[in-house]
Write a structure and sequence with these properties.
The protein is mainly α and 164 residues long. The chain has helices spanning 3-34, 37-72, 81-87, 90-136.
């Protein structure tokens, strides 16, 4: 398999992985809204595995792109899909163009989904912190009392009522 075909195969795999990450992000939104933490944790582990795969493919893509750039007599620094498209033959250039369009579409959809998920997580954390504060709130009495008199001890609410 020629380097160009290997590159296109890697890019196709990356598009598939990014599509899977997009699908997981959409599912995460549903789980955040439905407040299903166990399912959310399992989905997050799947997402992490996909991200690791993308990282491995990205390293292989960068290596191949550097080889192709060197063969084409251009610098590998800042080599984009558009630049690779110009170096490639017409058939490969068309395939790279379609892949670039897929990347643009997926990333355009992924950005707002991830932003919404981040907002939902922040709201959930705010709600959790609010509830913890209510549950652990303590009332404080006066710090000082007139000489010879004991200050009334404030009643303290505890989250767990057990001595260790």
């Amino acid at each position: 398999m020629a380097n160009w075909d290997k590159l296109v195969a890697i890019l196709d795999q990356m598009v598939e992985l990014y599509q899977a990450i997009l699908d997981i992000s959409r599912r995460k939104r549903e789980l955040l809204i439905a407040v299903k933490p166990q399912e959310l944790e399992a989905l997050t582990k799947q997402e992490e595995a996909l991200i690791l795969q993308v990282g491995k493919l990205e390293a292989a893509r960068a290596k191949l792109a550097a080889q192709l750039a060197a063969a084409g007599g251009v610098s590998a620094d800042g080599l984009t899909l558009a630049a690779l498209q110009q170096l490639a033959g017409p058939d490969i250039a068309d395939r790279i163009g379609k892949i670039a369009a897929d990347f643009e579409r997926i990333l355009a959809e992924l950005a707002p989904v991830n932003k919404l998920n981040a907002e939902l997580i922040q709201r959930a954390l705010g709600f959790i912190n609010y509830n913890i504060n209510i549950l652990t709130r303590s009332t404080t009495g006066p710090t000082y009392a007139p000489q010879g008199k004991n200050s009334a001890e404030a009643q303290v609410r505890k989250l767990v009522d057990r001595k260790i």
